[in-house]
Design a protein that fits this description.
The complex is a heterodimer of chains A (about 110) and B (about 120).
Chain A (H helix, E strand, L loop, with lengths): L8 E4 L5 E6 L11 E6 L6 E4 L13 E6 L2 E6 L8 E8 L5 E3 L3 E5 L1
Chain B lengths: L2 E4 L3 E3 L5 E8 L8 E6 L5 E7 L6 E3 L7 E6 L4 E6 L8 E8 L5 E4 L3 E5 L2
Parallel strand pairs in B: 2-11
Antiparallel strand pairs in B: 1-3, 3-8, 4-5, 4-9, 5-6, 7-8, 9-10, 9-11
The chains are: A mainly beta (about 110), B mainly beta (about 120).
Chain lengths: ~110, ~120
């Protein structure tokens, strides 16, 4: 199972909106709604921020939103803030009944 | 509150095995799947597999099949991951993570650094 493809880095200015992509295949992203996104700060464990494509866990800012089209899922961060600077990983359930993560995107706030 | 507490750092020689534990508390242990994820230094997250605590049934990512074993002890609410035939590329932080019951990893342990070095 190959890792899902994410851009290595995305940057934006405070207040802007940015979108991170996550491309898989019909055996993972395209075949299931079980796509989630995780935020990770250096030296810390990942934190779930989106599940089932576009749902936010309790306590996660509504500036984070998710979507999916075909084999590509997306995470949009609106009203970018300094605290959003982190690594972001997508994940999908797969046809092999396990999961796969994306390659990760480093978000930089300019 | 849900808490996952992992065992401490390990240093192993190539060819050896390592077993990392993850003790769960704050919920009924047998109700949710537990996953294992690792992250090599400076690299991304890599999914290893999961165990169903109520039955012990496991599913491993293809890359780790034959080399990984996940087990659980319901009496202590602890899950374990054992990786054999260690090589330098297995140097990583290993995380346990509890499923939310909706196909996502909602709670994470603090991570355990495993270093493989001769």
């Amino acid at each position: 199972q190959s890792a899902l493809t994410q851009p290595a880095s995305v940057s934006g200015s405070p207040g802007q909106s940015i979108t991170l992509s996550c491309t898989g295949t019909s055996s993972d992203v395209g075949g299931y709604t079980h796509v989630s996104w995780y935020q990770q700060y250096p030296g810390k464990a990942p934190k779930l921020i989106i599940y089932e494509v576009n749902n936010r866990p309790s306590g996660v800012s509504n500036r984070f939103s998710g979507s999916k089209s075909g084999n590509t899922a997306s995470l949009t961060i609106s009203g970018l803030q300094a605290e959003d600077e982190a690594d972001y990983y997508c994940s999908s359930y797969t046809i092999t009944t396990t999961y796969v993560f994306g390659t990760g995107t480093k978000v930089t706030v300019l | 509150q849900v808490l996952l507490v992992q065992s401490g750092a390990e240093v192993k020689k190539p060819g050896a095995s390592v077993k990392v534990s993850c003790e769960a508390s704050g919920y009924t242990f047998t109700t949710q799947y537990m996953h294992w994820v690792r992250q090599a230094p400076g690299q991304g997250l890599e999914y290893m597999g999961f165990i169903i605590p109520s039955s012990g049934i496991t599913a491993y990512a293809q890359k780790f099949q034959g080399r990984v074993t996940m087990t659980r002890d319901t009496s202590t609410s602890t899950v374990y991951v054992e990786l054999s035939s260690l090589r330098s590329e297995d140097t990583a932080v290993y995380y346990c993570a509890r499923d939310l019951g909706i196909f996502c990893l909602g709670y994470w342990g603090q991570g355990t650094l495993v270093t493989v070095s001769s």
